[in-house]
Structure prediction request, 541 residues.
Amino acid sequence: MSAAARAALFALLAAVALASRTAMPVDETRYLAVAWEMWTRGDFLVPHLNGAPYSHKPPLLFWLIHAGWAAFGVNDAWPRLVAPLCAVGTLLVTARAARVLWPQAPWIAGRAAWILAGTLLFALFSVLLMFDTLLALCVAVGVLGLAHAAAGRRRGFPLLALGFGLGLLAKGPAALLHLGPAALLAPWWAGRALPRRRWYMGVALALGGGAMLALAWAIPAGVRGGEAYRDAIFWGQTAHRMVASFAHRQPVWWYLPWLPVVLAPFLAWRPLWDGLRGAGLLDDAGARLALALALPALAAFSLVSGKQLHYLLPQFPSFALLAARALDAPQPARRPWLAGATLAGIGAALLALPFVPRAAAFAPSPAVAIAAAVALAALAAWLLLVPRPPAAQVPRLATAAVLLLAVLHLAVVRVVAPAWDTRPLAQAIAVLQAQGRALVHDGAYHGQYQFAGRLAAPLAQVTDVPAAQRWIDQHPDGAVVVYFKEREALAALAPIATQPFRGRYAALLEARDAAGAVAVSEALEARDAEGEPAGDPTPRP
Prediction:
């Protein structure tokens, strides 16, 4: 029943996210563009973006999108349901791993799944079209394999191989950092009785099996994609990126102050720390496995400079396993005062937003703000009404965290969503494409209009004023996509279509109007970057 309740909770969050916003540029729209281009080309082996092989990500996420389109037809909803389905799958696999690790305490399984479900960053990424929730599912499968293998079960190493292989197909060699160290540290976490020779032979076979699964795609894709693509997927994704990553842009300790945020609400919860301090936790093989998963991965990602919070997401199941085991020690009933106060504080902030002069762009209407504040106050009261033992608080804390995200989608995300909706311009571009008009994009094009407009071909790109002028001279009847920092720059123009776009304004202009507009757009961008006046903002046709 608990599994069904968790699935229903994520289904509610996914439905609210689908109703609140469209796919966001540039990441979500880029991945949709890659999937759409593969679909229209009929090439499911080599991902493409803007007509060129796309080597930055392997194809597993795109294949899942294609599977849904093949079953249900091309639609906007299915791609954005892939992440919630992967999140629910990760909860199920994590619970199964807990049952294998602690067969004598089956209640830990449900508790671990609830902790994972209620960890805010995990819940947030469960409704984002990104690779990290998919990778978390692959890593969880590998963790289940480690647990089975340590128990001497035959299915263990095949599951580990599956975790390695699917992880490589999901996000490349990063999967090895999430699973490899724990596999190598097995004599520490599994105990001295572990047959080391047999273990390391099994790990080697699992790694080889996972590599063969990934190579079954990579070898034919490298042959078809050409030399540059082959070099990128076999070499550029590993050595080139790792070497460049040690030129630190972020300090080694960058992740540490963020951990209370990304692991909220549980890392700031007193019962968890009381449980972690309890005697005997390190005597438990399952707790040691969780540490062998989480700590080396945290250290490895701290050493590379390209740091993003969501890179740690595949380690959240190991955090959930450790936290669930730590909470198994008896503790007195309490009220989660910090969580309740945080919910009430967020509600008060939402209530005040409509009256903050500079918050108009993302403030809900007063009626929506009141409704959101009341909902969050009710959640806080639900948490604080009766003291409960920590184990009984976990499902309530998790439910409150997911419902908090749902309320924020309805109150705030829905307000700012039009600034991220690419459909108005995309549909205007599609009309011109159908008429056979030539189109070009001023600046780097990340495919943000491809899927929203169901475009038959990607847009050409120009990256400077001289190139734009040459294109306009060659295509006087064409149209240009231009971006402006200020709406006033559009006053003297007659755009075919315009829309807000990530704090700027995007416009589709006739070529005859675009030459001066491109210059103005670049001048305004330069002024914004340098803090200096850009001169006369009046476009000159």
Remarks:
- The chain is about 60% helix and 5% strand.
- The longest strand covers residues 504-510.
